[in-house]
């Protein structure tokens, strides 16, 4: 079994700019700059044979490139217990189109469709026992925030390696956008 997801890498300068913001929130486990990305589709644990089929199907996609930008910060979770701090990604039509094409490939391979609505973002930190007020202070203190645009000329199949220190992401294959 292999744990996979499809996503977009961030340019080094964008990832470094986000990494500079890390800190000041108790209970936050910040994502390393090298692991920052935009997830198009999380697949989870799949058989290696299916992973090879996925690679072949993704390589057959011929989709246009586009530009992305970050816009603002937010958090996932309830009012009392937030679990993820994120940077928002502008929802451009070609991004949504690419995500939909990837979803079609995944479903055609027999995997279940994604139940959650696509909410493009970059996860900055996982939150555990973090006072929600501190998260809201961070968001307010860094707003307004806008970064980009930058060109997106490929998407990537990543392997996720889980450890006690958090996940590490390995780039398995890049697929060019036209």
**Percent range of helical residues:** 25-40%
Mean pLDDT: 95
CATH superfamily caption: Cyclic phosphodiesterase
State the order of secondary-structure elements, H for helix, E for strand. Answer: EHEEHEEHEHEEE
The CATH architecture term is Alpha-Beta Complex
Radius of gyration: 16 Å
How large is the count of helical segments? 4
What is the percentage of strand-forming residues?
35-45%
CATH topology: Cyclic Phosphodiesterase, Chain: A
Uncertain ranges: none
| Sheet of most strands | 5 strands, antiparallel
**Oligomerization:** single chain
User: Class by helix and strand content?
Assistant: alpha+beta
Measured between the Cα atoms of the first and last residue, the distance is 32 Å
* DSSP, total strands: 9
**What is the total number of structural domains?**
1
Q: Could you say which overall geometry the principal axes of the C-alpha atoms support? A: globular
Strand order of the largest sheet: 2-6-5-4-7
CATH first level? Alpha Beta
Topology:
Layout: E1 2-9, H1 12-19, E2 28-30, E3 37-46, H2 48-59, E4 66-77, E5 82-89, H3 93-108, E6 121-127, H4 132-141, E7 146-152, E8 154-161, E9 168-176
Antiparallel strand pairs: 1-3, 1-8, 2-6, 4-5, 4-7, 5-6, 8-9
In words, what does this structure look like?
- This protein has a single domain (2-176), classed as Cyclic Phosphodiesterase, Chain: A.
- A hairpin with a 4-residue loop joins strand 4 and strand 5.
- With 178 residues, the protein is α+β, with helices and mostly antiparallel strands.
- It contains four helices and nine strands, in the order βαββαββαβαβββ.
- Helices cover 26% and strands 40% of the residues.
- It has helices at 12-19, 48-59, 93-108, 132-141, and strands at 2-9, 28-30, 37-46, 66-77, 82-89, 121-127, 146-152, 154-161, 168-176.
- The mean pLDDT is 95.
- It has a five-stranded antiparallel beta sheet. Strands 3-1-8-9 form a four-stranded antiparallel beta sheet, covered by helices on one side.
């Amino acid at each position: 079994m292999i744990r996979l997801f499809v996503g977009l890498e961030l340019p080094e300068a964008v990832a470094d700019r986000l990494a500079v913001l890390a800190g000041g929130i108790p209970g936050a486990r910040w994502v390393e700059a090298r692991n920052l990305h935009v997830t198009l589709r999380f697949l989870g644990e799949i058989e290696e044979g299916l992973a090879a089929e996925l690679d072949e199907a993704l390589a057959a996609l011929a989709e246009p490139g586009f530009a992305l930008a970050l816009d603002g910060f937010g958090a996932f979770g309830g009012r009392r217990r937030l679990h993820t701090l994120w940077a928002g990604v502008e929802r451009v039509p070609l991004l949504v189109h690419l995500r939909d094409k990837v979803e079609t490939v995944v479903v055609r391979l027999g995997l279940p469709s994604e139940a959650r609505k696509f909410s493009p973002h970059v996860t900055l930190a996982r939150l555990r026992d973090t006072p929600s007020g501190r998260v809201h202070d961070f968001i307010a203190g860094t707003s307004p925030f806008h970064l980009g645009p930058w060109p997106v000329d490929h998407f990537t199949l990543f392997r996720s390696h889980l450890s006690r220190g958090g996940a590490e992401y390995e780039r398995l294959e890049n697929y060019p956008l036209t």
